[in-house]
Amino acid sequence: MSTVVTRSHLDWLEAEAIFILREVAAECEKPALLFSGGKDSCVLLKLAEKAFRPGRFPFPLMHIDTGHNFPEVIAFRDAYVAQLGERLIVRSVEDSIARGSVVLRGENDSRNAAQAVTLLEAIEEHGFDACIGGARRDEEKARAKERIFSFRDAFGQWDPKAQRPELWNLFNTRVHRGENMRVFPISNWTELDVWQYIQREQIALPPIYYTHQREVVRRRGLLVPVTPITPPAEGETVESVAVRFRTVGDISCTCPVASDAADPLAIIAETALTTITERGATRMDDQTSEASMERRKKEGYF
What we know:
Low-confidence stretches: 287-291
CATH architecture of the largest domain: 3-Layer(aba) Sandwich
Mean pLDDT: 87
Shape: globular
CATH superfamily of the largest domain: HUPs
Strand content: 5-15%
Largest sheet: 6 strands, mixed
Order of helices and strands: HEHEHEHHEHEEHEEEEHHH
Number of helices: 10
Strand order of the largest sheet: 3-2-1-4-6-5
């Protein structure tokens, strides 16, 4: 009597992502995996372990550091990479500012979009022909337009109207020298899928993803963390609120949400009920058309 194996939707998503990671390793000459310490990139590392262990990853890890990251996330990043024993390349927006390739209007301006310049410099420096990232299509409208293997020209630019077809999961990885691919193995995952996978696989995350007390001010419908980079404006009231971060990024543009969720199961329950995307609820730089994701992606943003 044969046994019928029933696979969950997470099993199918996992299998697809592992297939994509192995396709990158097989087809691309010099790839890198972008690792920030955020939840999506932590999921990518778990998938890479399943795809390539007990061997070493066939690519280095790379982080584009804005210099304005939450210290808890940077500490977690370094500890996690040390535990894995993998190579981490860090390139800093601060260095791009020193070189003059990035110019900001003010010292505390958001450096989120400026990451594109530093990323393109790192790709050229190391000759990477593919960069693997944890972007998902449900995050934002511009991301929903993007292929899993997303072609970038020699200037690092993305053209949403000229993308390669991916019928039957057949990926065209051909690039000329100077061109590259951005590859998104968890494109088809949702925020809820990510948290269900974190719960199932017991994936460690930076502590700020879970509820904690933090001083914030209420500004344009967001809870803005009070830091030296984001001080309260005149007349704003500082409150201590139980919050967690749905996404982590540059301090100057990333906000937490009010939450008492202390573990993945509680976050799964919250996520199942929310009607606002994680970027819509937490990113100050996504609140204006001037800083639209699509414009930034066309200029080289991940």
